[in-house]
Amino acid sequence: MGPGQSAFTRNHAYFEGNKLTDEIRDRPVRSVFIGQFALSDGECALAVHGLGSCVALILFEPRLGMGGLAHVLLPGEALPSDSTQDLPAKYASRALDALHTGLQKRGARAASVKAILVGGARMFESDADLDQGVGQRNVESLKQMLRSRGIAIVAEATGGGQGRTVIFDLPECRLRIRTLRDGWSEKNLK
Questions:
Q1: Residues taking part in catalysis
Q2: pTM value?
Q3: For residue 105, what is the DSSP state?
Q4: Hey, where are the domains in the chain?
Q5: For residue 152, what is the enclosing H or E element?
Q6: Rg of the Cα atoms in the chain
Q7: pLDDT tens readout for residues 53-63
């Protein structure tokens, strides 16, 4: 194990100070927090740790090995009364727009962009009033928007009752997902 590495992250990534490093490729991993998004041309992996009802929306262009990840908090369009400027990916519509536009500005062909959805769990099974199915609504909202733009969903790990951690490696286009119950799984998408 690397310095400061715990069994929780063994063989995948570890923290060294405040920097998360991918042990496999020895390169930085950029963590994407709630309502944020990030783009990568392969200089770093993109990650969300501890996804619950939120959804990690990943758009990528396999030919170029570039992609982006948004940590979506709420489904649909932004409410007119919500002027939150510091959370550009808070709502599904804004997240999709930001990723799609960002990839196209970097040279991705719209017709070649693929999508991955991870998260959308129901975290409070015992209290439906507390959960209100926001995870499922996040997933359905994103699926509808992706269909309307003709973007294919090539991988999905959504729903259920457990949280997930996701790491998306670029330029390899390799998806790694961890749950407490099942551990790590990997899928190559290039």
A1: 54
A2: 0.85
A3: H
A4: 7-188
A5: strand 152-158
A6: 16
A7: 999 999 999 99
Q: Using the structure block, give the residue that is written with the tokens 């290039």.
A: 190
Q: What is the CATH number of domain 7-188?
A: 3.30.1330.200
Q: Which residues contact 35 (CB under 8 A, 6 or more apart)?
A: 71, 73, 84, 86, 87, 88, 89, 90
Cβ-contact 86, 139 below 8 angstroms: no
How far, in Å, CA of 89 to CA of 27, rounded?
A: 25
Summarised one tens digit per residue, pLDDT across range 91-144 is 999 999 999 999 999 999 999 999 999 999 987 665 555 556 888 999 999 999
- Of 67, 186, 42, 61, give the one whose Cα is nearest residue 113: 61
Distance CA 62, CA 173 (A): 7
> In angstroms, what CA-CA distances link 129 with 72, 79, 120, 152, 162?
21, 21, 16, 33, 18
Instruction: Quickly list DSSP for 30-82.
Output: EE--TT-EEEESSSSEEEEEEESSSEEEEEEETTTTEEEEEEE-B-SSPPTT-
Peptide bond preceding 3 in cis form (omega within 30 of 0): no
Burial class (CB in 10 A: 0-12, 13-18, 19+), 179: middle
Taking residues 5-21, report their average pLDDT. Answer: 41
Nearest to 8 by CA among 187, 165, 175: 165
